[in-house]
UniProtKB/TrEMBL annotation:
Residues 51-188 form the Organic solvent tolerance-like N-terminal domain. This is LPS-assembly protein LptD. The gene is lptD. Together with LptE, is involved in the assembly of lipopolysaccharide (LPS) at the surface of the outer membrane. InterPro entries: LipoPS_assembly_LptD, LptD, LptD_C, OstA-like_N.
């Protein structure tokens, strides 16, 4: 506990009392590389004139010309300086070739490279150069080295006994030596034979062949490995290989060795074709050696995301994630899901769009990670049709029709299956002027169920169920604006809102089967009650259609906003509550009724304190529970770029959790504080830290500290993390933690686009940073 708070205070102190750099690292790095000035000449070199200036010259026409002292040769983009040069002409007028021979130290430059060496031959008919004993430096980007000889052609360079590094001059942090190197100019990559990677001139490893990028273009090859250690995984090593299959296909294959678990093979394939773009990924660990819950089982993940448009008006979307077991995201870090999500979704949908209507056919199921015996229903198929028509009856009404045909099935033979057919027409009429608006909406819910009991169930279900529910809703809004008396130049608005909603009662206990102890939710697709400010004005208590509660209620709410003289919103505050004329209910079970005269008070506020500071807060007070049910607050300091400090607090009462989860077994309140700090300390150092602590639980949930050091040609990142893996007995506060660290070394300077790595480090952890809602 003491150590955790020490980490928190050290992180805040570090970022607050360390100054930022004036210039970005990549800008500083580019200041030390040569830059081409002037206009690039792209015409045929043979047609470009040659300009030669020297202290003295000797002409032997038409054989040769000898130039001595401060010789300067220019042709198009090329310029060469030396003390001695001989220009020869070979061939006849129809095939005349011109060469400049340099037999003294020289300096050469064009729009792509600068060379210095002992001797050279320069073709004045094309872009070819042959030189010996050279040092080279790329122009306008990092990349330098040496070679005993080089031949420069139009689209490639061939070097013998060559070196390459993106480090700046006089920096030997790393380099690659090779017997032969071929640099491909347009494709921006280098091939090396018998390559030796060196750190400070000390050989680290050897490979007979190596490809290395020299620019932004994608190239196949090994990426930078990572190493680390954790209590569960043991020591691990991660080595990704990138395969640039084609311009529209690529793949990354990443084997990972964990001393406690074994070898895990990870792969990701990306594609862009006429039918759309997508990503397919998999993670596979055979015979997991360290798994206290699943002994020696194969662990795997499969992920597919696809989005496309075809036949002009059709869209196809696939979002499929499946894992081997419910503990997968708790045991493995994966960018394709988190344990905090609670489930993995598997869905596919095809949508047809027209200006006044759209049609969707889809299938959807969920893999839940909760400890339940019976999981949620899958929807296969789910057919939806929406129709819109505005301006009916001389513009008085807008018409909308939502219709659905869906089949529900469940893996458990205890649960019934069903077809649901639903029609939901509505008419909306709006009257608005400068004082406000009144919206009148009438709607009809017409639903038919064809149900069949589960094969192993002893409970019968009503085979055919019809439910017809009319609804009327009246919504009044107005906006009052005035100059704020407390802040000069500010305008304040007050936006009251009143809504009346009526829908008669219909007993819906004959829809589906309710098994609270085993089943997530009840009905086929109903979900939990939500009572934040925005849902106070929604039509229904439940997001699904199987439980449409009666309504005879008024909702009162108001929002006030403050705008500065530039019209930017700097503050808002919203407050609302539902007043029930009659209790809202779905059946004769009193637990499903609202059972009180009002809903919870809901409050939400956002405050843009200044350019750097933002605050967000929300609060709910339940008259039924006679206590605070929900509360959260976030204060964020974001002066520029990646520099962020965020403090957060989250509270949920035990009664509220039990009431809405239907589990009645959580056992305590949720009271969590959190801190996230991310800072580009200067042009070399970046720091990220986050810490989450449960006050009711009296234990740390997760802590993370990541530090990255960046230079022009390399960077190293170190991360340490401690988080709760399993919670055995909430009442006795029994938990198990995992402690891990990782190290990642990266070579920089290939593309000229460098970053501090703060954004990637912010995504580390089970509880990632969530960007605060900001006012503009």
């Amino acid at each position: 506990m003491k150590n955790s708070y020490s980490l928190l205070f050290i992180s805040i102190f570090t970022v607050l009392y360390t100054s930022q750099s004036i210039a970005k690292l990549e800008q500083q790095c580019l200041l030390h590389v040569p830059h081409f000035t002037g206009n690039i000449v792209k015409t045929d070199p043979n047609s470009q004139p040659v300009y030669i200036v020297s202290d003295s010259a000797e002409f032997n026409y038409p054989i040769n010309a000898i130039y001595r002292g401060n010789v300067d040769i220019q042709q198009g983009n090329r310029q060469l300086n030396t003390d001695y040069a001989e220009v020869k002409q070979i061939g006849n007028a129809e095939a005349l070739e011109r060469f400049a021979y340099i037999n003294s130290p020289f300096n050469y430059k064009d729009n792509l490279i600068q060379l210095s060496g002992r001797s050279a031959r320069l073709s004045l008919n094309d872009k070819e150069i042959a030189a010996k004993g050279i040092d080279y430096q790329f122009v306008d980007k990092q990349g330098r080295g040496t070679a005993t000889s080089v031949e420069v052609f139009d689209n490639h360079r061939i070097m013998e006994n060559a070196t390459f590094s993106t480090c700046l001059a006089n920096d030997n942090s790393w380099s690659i030596e090779s017997i032969k190197m071929r640099q491909h100019i347009k494709e921006e990559y280098a091939e090396m034979w018998h390559a030796r990677f060196k750190i400070h001139d000390v050989p680290i490893f050897y490979t007979p062949y190596l490809q290395l990028p020299t620019g932004d273009r994608r190239r196949s090859g090994l990426l930078i490995p990572s190493i680390g250690h954790s209590r569960r995984d043991g020591s691990w090593f991660y080595l990704p290989f990138y395969w640039n299959i084609a311009s529209n296909f690529d793949a990354t294959i990443s084997p990972k060795y964990m001393s406690h678990r074994g070898w895990q093979l990870n792969g990701e394939f990306r594609y862009l074709v006429d039918l759309g773009l997508g990503q397919i990924a998999s993670e596979y660990l055979p015979n997991d050696r360290y798994n206290p819950l699943l002994k020696n089982d194969d662990r795997y993940l499969f992920y597919w995301n696809h989005n496309s448009r075809f036949l002009q008006n059709w869209r196809l979307n696939i979002d499929y994630t499946k894992v081997s077991d419910k503990y997968y995201f708790s045991h493995f870090d994966s960018k394709y899901g988190r344990s905090t999500d609670g489930y993995a979704e598997q869905s596919i949908s095809a949508v047809y769009y027209q200006p006044n209507y759209n049609f969707t056919i889809s299938a959807r199921q969920f893999q839940v990670f909760d400890n339940v015996n019976i999981g949620p229903y899958r929807a296969l198929p789910d057919i939806n049709f929406n129709y819109y028509k505005n301006g009916l009856l001389n513009g008085l009404f807008d018409f909308k029709l939502y219709s659905q045909a869906i089949r529900f099935d469940n893996n458990s033979n205890l649960m019934p299956t069903a077809w649901r057919f639903h029609l939901e027409p509505s008419l909306v009429s709006s009257i608005a002027n400068k004082y406000g608006s009144i919206n009148l909406e009438t709607k009809l819910y017409a639903t038919h169920y064809q149900q069949k009991k589960g094969r192993d169930s002893q409970d019968d279900v009503q085979k055919s169920v019809n439910r017809v529910l009319p609804q009327i809703k009246v919504n009044f809004q107005t906006l009052l604006a005035k100059k704020n008396s407390f802040r000069e130049g500010y305008t304040q608005t007050i936006e009251p809102r009143i809504q009346y909603l009526y829908r008669p009662y219909k007993d819906q206990s004959n829809i589906g089967t309710e098994l609270k102890s085993n089943y997530v939710g009840f009905g086929y697709d109903s979900s939990l009650i939500q009572q934040d400010y925005y849902s106070l004005f929604s039509d229904r208590r439940y997001s699904g259609l199987d439980r449409i509660a009666s309504a005879n209620q008024f909702t009162l709410g108001a929002t006030t906003r403050l705008y500065n003289s530039d019209g930017d919103e700097r503050f808002n505050l919203s407050l609302g509550q539902i007043y029930y004329v009659r209790n809202s209910r779905i059946d004769e079970n009193i637990e499903s009724s609202t059972n009180n005269a009002t809903s919870a008070w809901a409050l939400e506020t956002n405050w843009r304190i200044n350019q750097d500071w933002n605050w967000h807060g929300s609060y709910q007070y339940s008259p039924n529970l006679k206590k605070t049910s929900l509360a959260n607050s976030i204060l964020e300091y974001n002066p520029s770029g990646n520099n962020i400090i965020q403090l957060s607090y989250r509270y949920a009462s035990k009664e509220y959790i039990d009431q809405n989860s239907k589990s009645n077994n959580y056992g305590q309140d949720i009271q969590q504080i959190g801190m996230v700090a991310a800072w580009d300390v200067n042009d070399h150092w970046a720091l990220v830290s986050h810490y989450y602590h449960d006050l009711a639980f009296k234990k740390s949930l997760e802590s993370y500290l990541g530090v990255k050091y960046n230079t022009c040609c390399w960077s190293v990142g170190v991360g340490a993390k401690r988080y709760v893996v399993d919670r055995f007995n909430p009442k006795d506060d029994e938990v198990k933690y995992d402690n891990s660290f990782n190290i990642k070394l990266e070579l920089q300077g290939f593309s000229g686009h460098q970053n501090s790595g703060v954004e990637n480090m912010l995504r580390e952890g089970k509880l990632p940073y969530l960007k605060l809602f900001s006012l503009h």
